Amino acid sequence: MALRICILETDHIRPELVEQYHGYGRMFKQLFAQQPIAAEFEVFNVVQGQYPDDAQRYDAYLITGSKYDSFGVEPWIQTLREYVLARYAAGDKLLGICFGHQLLALLLGGKTERARQGWGVGVQQYAVVEQEAWMQPGAEQLSMLIIHQDQVTQAPANATILAANAFCPIAAYRIGDQVLCWQGHPELVADYSRSILEIRREHWGEQVYRQAIDSLEQAHQGQIVAEWMLRFVAQGQAHSS
């Protein structure tokens, strides 16, 4: 049987990019479709108040990235917090990307805030500082596409940090076999990042823009991270492609 994953989509992408990229939920579907572990997905845009029926059950719940702050006070964020805490209390597996990574850290006893380092955009390299059995294929370094100005600055007490660099010391973490989070965006592609950089060039300034554009020449390893995520979810289950 295929894994069943609920994608909690926490944003709408820019209108001029919708025709080509649709949304983060679609990007994740396309990413995971290329993995050796079979999975099925349902997407719920929680900004619009969409959630699964209580009777529906999934092997994992994935919280996407967002332009909003994980520590924001918007009503939909408060609703999402309550929902995610209920899922955690029920023992469900949770995956967090960018905003989701930050939100879960905040909810589970860590700290998330505006980073003193400023915006991180483009491709960054991370050291894999903890090796786990489900991290197959293995890697000691990872390149990931990023777009963030907030960071997890203190991991939850029971978290294990998995990846780090000088700019983002808590770039990935897990909590037992239940929670797995990444600051980077495995679902993004370089062309999407390039479009965002062009749109926000003036906002970020020429130095940040140029460094990020140049970094897109590097390969990024979202495919490896996606496979790790599915293997993390599949632990102890008899799922296969």
TrEMBL record:
GO molecular function ontology, one term from the record: transferase activity
Pfam short name (any one): GATase
CDD domains registered for this protein in UniProt: GATase1_1
Presence of the UniProt keyword DNA repair in the record: no
NCBIfam families recorded: PRK05665.1 (NF004212)
Keywords on record: Transferase
GO CC entries: cytosol
Protein name: Amidotransferase
Ranges for domain Glutamine amidotransferase: 86-189
Tagged with keyword Glycoprotein: no
Alphabetized InterPro entries for the sequence: ChyE-like (IPR044992), Class_I_gatase-like (IPR029062), GATASE (IPR017926)
